[in-house]
Design a protein that fits this description.
- By secondary structure, the chain is mainly alpha-helical.
- It folds into two domains: 147 residues, no CATH class; 92 residues, no CATH class.
- It is 62% helix and 0% strand.
- It contains 14 helices and no strands.
- Helix 3 runs antiparallel to helix 4 and helix 7 packs antiparallel against helix 8.
- The radius of gyration is 24 Å and the shape is elongated.
- The chain starts with 5 loop residues before the first helix and ends in an 8-residue tail after the last helix.
Length: 257
């Protein structure tokens, strides 16, 4: 059985980390970083793996470099995203996808920042092994995470994304999207309540205007968003039909109830 020694794999990890020089393969907008040394890292990995010798001192061929060995290298590397950028091209698309699934399964709760790291891994996987993560899945996941940002969430964008089509169950983000949606819509509900308490009616109207389209919508996507809103924001229908008379609301005596 062919085997890669622990000492030699340590050399690979060190070389990869050194060559990356602290640069990250994915930019803040979840696009590949053109300044990242993609070719250098892939060449280092090719050289490392193709020069590993079998018992009869024969050089390994690409066919002998099994996905499990490459996957093991990636999973043992401290920075999984950099590791996928370095070695993901040597794996079958399905094996890359299974690797990402294992990484996703380690998320114990809905952690936006953990999901962002996994989206970065998806971006890299798409870049080095395009068939492992299709562009449509990548774009959908990117949009959903942009809409769920804790510091600047966009429940309207989130709702529109869900209205435009259900998330296929085979998408890597599928097990987490409705939990992310619940958190985003709950935060939205809390924001509306705070605006109501502060009599910030103009801001509340601007914040809630998109709900009317959801309320009137009849597609299956609209029904899905309504279910999500029912769970996260019980009063959303009142906001959806609210048509404020700002001459009266200025007195701070009116309310949506």
């Amino acid at each position: 059985m062919l085997s890669f020694g622990h000492r030699h794999s340590n050399n690979w990890h060190q070389q990869i980390q050194k060559s990356a020089e602290g640069r990250q393969p994915v930019l803040e907008d979840f696009l590949p970083n053109p300044l990242f040394p993609w070719d250098t890292l892939r060449s280092l990995t090719d050289l490392y793996l193709l020069k590993k010798k079998a018992k009869k001192n024969e050089l390994l061929t690409r066919e002998q470099i099994t996905d499990s060995r490459v996957s093991s290298l990636i999973e043992k590397h401290a920075n999984k995203v950099v590791a996928i950028a370095s070695a993901g091209h040597l794996m079958a698309p399905r094996s890359v996808r299974l690797l990402l699934i294992r990484e996703f399964s380690r998320i114990e709760s809905v952690d936006y920042f953990a999901l962002c790291l996994l989206l970065e891994a998806m971006v890299v996987a798409n870049f080095v092994n395009a068939e492992s993560v299709c562009e449509q899945e990548l774009q959908k996941t990117r949009t959903l995470l942009f809409a769920s940002r804790p510091d600047n969430s966009s429940p309207e964008l989130l709702a529109q994304t869900l209205i435009n089509g259900a998330i296929p169950t085979e998408y890597l983000v599928s097990p987490y999207i409705y939990l992310l949606a619940h958190k985003t819509l709950t935060d939205f509900s809390n924001k509306l309540e705070e605006l109501r308490k502060n009599c910030s009616w103009s801001a509340a109207r601007a914040c809630s205007a998109w709900l009317a389209d959801v309320y009137l919508g009849e597609s299956s996507g609209h029904d899905l968003v309504k279910q999500r809103l029912d769970a996260a924001s019980p009063n959303w229908r009142a906001w959806a039909v609210w048509k404020p008379d700002f001459r009266r609301t200025m007195t701070c005596k009116s309310s949506v109830s």
